[in-house]
Amino acid sequence: MIGHNLTVREILRRSARRDPAKTAIAHYRDGAELTGVSYETLFRDVNGLAQAMLEAGLRPGDRIAVLGENSYEFCRLVLAAANAGMVAAPVNIQLGSDELRSVLAELSPRAVAGDGPVLDRFAAALDDSAYGDRIWRFGSEPARGLAEPPDVPITADDPCLILYTSGSTGRSRGVVLTHGSVVMNSWNSVMCWGFRSSDRMLLGLPLYHVSMLNTTLVPTLQAGGTALIVNRLNAASLFRQLHATKATVTLALPFMYQAMLDEAANSELGYPPLRLALYGMAGMPNALSDRIRKELGAQMMSGFGQTESGGNTLVLTDAEHDGKCGSIGRPVANVEVELLDDQGNPLPPRSGAVGELAYRGASICLGYLTERGTESAQQDSWLRSGDLAFEDGDGYFWFQGRTRDVIKSGGENVYAAKVEQVISAIPGVVEVAVVGLSSERWGEEVVAFVVGDPAVTAAEEIRALARRGLAPYEVPKKVVFVESLPKSAAGKIVKRRLVEEYGNG
């Protein structure tokens, strides 16, 4: 439990009272603003929808599945559920119908809400459900505003969100986050990333992902900034979206920033007015970091964490990029971090030994929706992340891959993230993913899949250059050039698809 029992509802109340006329959320499509609401209007809209949900027969604690593209209505629904003491469960809309049925069977929501096109796409999966008249289309709810939220008691320990893990290595699971965990992670972002009330935050990755809801949307509202919602952000659209929205802060993947810089250098519009370039989910090459900071004049910060941790657990600040670019940073102020060996024992601090990251703090999840796996994930109140890292002598952590992402080659452990970091710095390499493929000789052989230009640096040149920073057994046996790497909707590389496609040669 956190001090003063702060909840998501209270964050909205305080921001609405502090600066009622300021724009809280603006929704853009194709460069045009569709919706722009003030903090006062947002709070009244959210309160009105929360009351309408209660009058429709829902009760505090009920779960609501949310199926929709990024929009103001999506944000309003999630926040209204929090104000009414209900639990919003945004669902990955890239799932197939069978996967959606599996998620809904586990979730057992009292209602499903979403935008029309997405609900229509999943009509078959929803028609055989038991929700009846509790399938709502965004915009069909009564349009009214209330100055105060429903009189429903909510504490920091009450569930607020159920977010699903990306499922990049298997079946996704619902992670239960309390009001306290959401608020504490929001405060971590505000404090460690330095959000300001003057910030215009561009949110374009899927809102059902923890990086958008927990580490950017709620913190923007807590800081009193303006959240700029766009339907989809990718490498081809980042430059255009930044200019159209006049955003000063965004969270994107490194390859998106590279495409944006290349476009800006050849455009009459020039560089967008970005103050803060945030990134996560992938390592940042040093050369790209230098370009962002010099050409854009923007500060850079990274965030590292997972759905189960509620969001950020480690941060690398702008100044720290000078000597530690590629590191995942140091722990945020309100999270304890340990490295555990194979037996679950803490490793000595700053020893350089690789171990599993474990977290403890108020932002950590309550557990999984189904209890299967919860005990192993949060043994002795520590969240065992499944991520491998080492801590250097200065207290900075360096990601080494997943526990199941260790390649066993010729009796040696090869950490895919280390190999990727070395190869990503080679000229001509845009993106890289390293996996282990079955080998009669080695057990597993290290294979690097590269997005880049072989005319700049050929496969054998990449292997030769990689030898400068890697042990012989870590150097990829093969380098395969591909047009693109398979990714989840959240932008994470899905390595199992590479193994499935190329595992048989």
Structure characterization notes:
It is a single chain. By secondary structure, the chain is of the alpha/beta class. The chain contains 16 helices and 25 strands. The strands form six sheets. The protein has a nine-stranded mixed sheet with strand order 2-1-10-9-11-12-13-14-15, sandwiched between helices. A four-stranded parallel sheet has the order 4-3-5-6. It has a four-stranded antiparallel sheet with strand order 16-17-19-20. α1 runs antiparallel to α2 and α1 packs parallel to α8. It is globular and about 65 Å long. The termini are far apart. About 1% of the residues have low confidence.
In angstroms, what is the radius of gyration? 23 Å
Question: How many helices?
Answer: 16
Q: Count the strands?
A: 25
Helix share bin:
25-40%
Bin the strand percentage.
25-35%
Sketch the major β-sheet.
9 strands, mixed
Overall body shape: globular
Please state the structural category: alpha/beta
- What distance separates the N and C termini? 52 Å
Tell me the strand order in the biggest sheet. Answer: 2-1-10-9-11-12-13-14-15
Average pLDDT taken over every residue: 90
Low-confidence stretches: 372-376
Oligomeric state of the chains in view: single chain
